[in-house]
Amino acid sequence: MKYFIKKLATLIMTLFIVSVAAFIAFQIIPGDVVTSILGTEATPEREVQLRQELGLDQPPVKRYFSWMVGVLQGDLGVSYRYSKNMNEMMPVAELIGDKLPVTLWLAAISLMLIVAVSIPLGVFWAKSRSKVLDAVLGVTTQTAMAVPAFFLGILVTYLFGIFLKWFTPGGYVSYQENMGGFLGYLVFPAISIAIPKIAMTARFLRNSMLTEMDADYVRTAYSKGCSDRRVMYGHVLRNAMMPVVTFLGMIIAEIIAGSIVVEQVFGLPGIGRLLISSISTRDFPVVQILILYITFVVIFVYFLVDILYRIIDPRISSK
Amino acid sequence: MIRIEKLTVAFGDNEAVNELDLQIADGEILGIVGESGSGKSVTALSIMGLLSREAAITGGRIYMGEDLLLQAGVPQDKEMLRRYQGSRMSMVFQEPMTSLNPTQKVGKQVDEVLELHGQMEPKARYDKVLEAFRSVGLKHVEKVYDSYPHQLSGGMRQRVMIAMAIILQPELLVADEPTTALDVRVQNQIIEVLREINEKQKTSMLFITHDLNLARRICNRIAVMKDGHLVEIGSTEDIFERPREAYTRKLIEAVPSRVKVKELENTIPVDEQGLILDVKHLNVYYQEGSNSLFGQKKKRCVVEDATFSLEKGETLGLVGESGCGKTSLCKAILGMNRLIDGEVKHFSQRPQMVFQDPYSSLNPSKTIGWLLQEPLRAAGRLDPERAMTKADMEAAAYDMLHKIGIAEKYFTRKPSQLSGGQRQRISIGQALITRPGLVIADEPVSALDVTIQAQIMELMQKLQEELQLSYLFISHDINVIYKMSDRIMVMKDGKIVEIGEKEELFYYPKEEYTKLLLKES
To answer: Which residue among B78, B85, B151 sits closest to A224, beta carbon to beta carbon?
Structure first.
């Protein structure tokens, strides 16, 4: 219980600090939203008027608090750039709500791929005693780790989209229309995200398992009459997973942040693309919320990792 | 029952075991004794089929009864081996701390043996595990079943390991240094458990140890190994009473020490009356600094007119409140404070000190082995005649590790990996490695919790007997003093208030202050 309160306090503190930092950042960076919106139609009068409309004539501290109060009450503010129709501003919540599922599903599918492939691969690799296989896997994973995500995206598009014609490049299906089609389309960007991470995780797991194989309890397990397979899956894997779980947590955080590039390559309307366009147009209300959201997800994932860690290693909770 | 014929095991070009012939009879306990690297563990692992992949069996055979377990040049039948492992032969390892899977409940780990070798129902298996736990002297067995290894003490873990090894009543139990990592008291209990199993279940045992004394206590026969060869084998009595080989004799003589035994033995010099320390009319002063440049420095007397003496093998307890001059007195005796007058006569050359705080008195950046050797290096520099070779110093340090009940693996580790009790053991080891006659222990157990306190005191008493030490044992805790001392000296405000035999002083204190001290505790 105490543990949860502590974690919660950390979460709130971090979010607060990040929100302040994000807010200050946009006070400092050059570029003015008003001139950016009005563009060539700018006249001094219209600028003043728009500034008042957006509340930008208030001092920064006051703006921060009125924004924060709004966020705490569930009002995420309105976008400067997008509008619902001629007369209505676009609420940020609605804007993000549309794109969030795309990014979250992308991350989820990527993670599933990573876990489903890297763990058996890592175990298999650790078990293999063939030097040839060892070298092949070594080089393959090294290469996979080194290739940048956008290039992998292009390769995947070429291989599955143009060569094998398993999907239509750029033929994104919205999840509101067809959930199956949507997920089917997401698999391919997820593959491009997952490949380097699979390579890293498999390597990591293999090394961790090889270290664990020298542990005394492994010898004990063999002395009981356990087969290689049983020693691997029954004893070594769980112990070897401990560092890997931490590693996976870091990877999840990376996927969320790294999906920006892949979303561009595959034309996915996720928050990555929204983030880029909002930054370039100085659409601060959107950017600030996205930053808070990413921070929240990362901290939450670390929290889950922590819980998982406690489940795997009984020694931690008693400390 | 086990027949080893001309077994040769090599690691690369290095032959760890060379043409070894050995038999273990039904129901006997055979000890293999040798220094580390003698091939004793490799032999055990060969029987169990647990050799690491780097090891190659280049010659020989091992039979269990009529069945061929292992033959050089023929790949081992893993299926058959697995049927033997855990059910017909099993093993207890040296390190109970790491030999159990840290992420599995110990009950489940024992249960796995049953699961692998039998078709029993889960409920029946559960009962059988509990029964095995009881048979090795574990209490609260249900609770133990659901514990993770880190929740159990070293002794309990080793009992769990033994339970795991004997649950299917194997014909052979291989115990590789099963008590080395445990402290003396637990060591005895584990030996008892093993002996009982041998008697009740008629299990044959291969008992591997570097400690001849331990082998003597439990084994029927002893095989002495050196550099992969069998030096000598015979009944325990023959080995000890009529050793045929020089190496065996050397090992026996080296009990309890492998190092320069002759030279160090009984060299603790005493005067005609058997005194090791004689202090007469000692005053100790303390320089009070003056702030002004030319100000006269003042001397303050912190110990006044101290007169006492210490006999060989005796413990003199020194008790008093903090600030009464206990530590100043010690420093003066050790020569760390020169502002004294009076007479301090040492009859032993190398008094040593054990300090209170085991956390700060060991250099955290050095290994345990280095720390233990440091006093030897210092002694060697002071007196070239006593300089030892590097190998000798290392051997002495290893030897001291055994004496103070710390596992050899700690040799290369740093103090931060030790508990407070273990660190204090190291401090004691440092003090004793130069074989002093007199050890001054300044509150050596005050920073430790009660159970560790008891263990450290036990260790100090054991070492006192072994090495004929005299202790000047300082504590503010009257109970600790009572437990340790032969005579007690009470100090107050720099003066010795009363000296007397322990019992006398406790039951018939003469001075008011002593009575007060006794009443308070």
So the answer is: B85
**Cis peptide upstream of residue B256 (ω within 30 degrees of 0):** yes
Using a CB–CB cut-off of 8 Å, the residues of B that contact A are 48, 50, 78, 82-87, 90-91, 93, 95, 98-104, 109, 112-113, 116-117, 148, 150-151, 161, 164
Q: How many CB atoms lie within 10 A of CB A83?
A: 12
A-chain residues near B93 (CB < 8 A): 216, 219-220, 223
Contact assessment for residue B43 and residue B4, using Cβ atoms and an 8 Å cutoff = yes
Q: List residues of A whose CB lies inside 8 A of any B CB.
A: 215-217, 219-227, 230, 234-235, 238-239, 312-315, 318
3-class SS of residue A235:
helix
Residue B256 has pLDDT above 60, yes or no: no
> Distance between CA B281 and CA B346 in Å, rounded?
15
User: What is the pLDDT at residue B219?
Assistant: 92
**Residue B321 carries which side chain, given as an amino acid letter?**
E
For A102, the token pair is 């795309």
- The residue-averaged pLDDT of B184-196 equals 83
Question: In this predicted structure, what is the pLDDT of residue A319?
Answer: 46
Q: What is the average per-residue pLDDT within B356-385?
A: 82
Q: How far apart are CA B226 and CA B315, in angstroms?
A: 40
Total-model pTM: 0.61
- With an 8 Å Cβ cutoff, are A234 and B112 in contact? yes
Region A110-270: CATH code: 1.10.3720.10
Interface confidence (ipTM) of the complex: 0.73
Q: 3-class DSSP state for residue B2?
A: strand
**CA dist A48 → A52, A53, A245, A285 (Å):** 6, 9, 53, 19
Answer yes or no: do A313 and B103 touch at CB < 8 A: yes
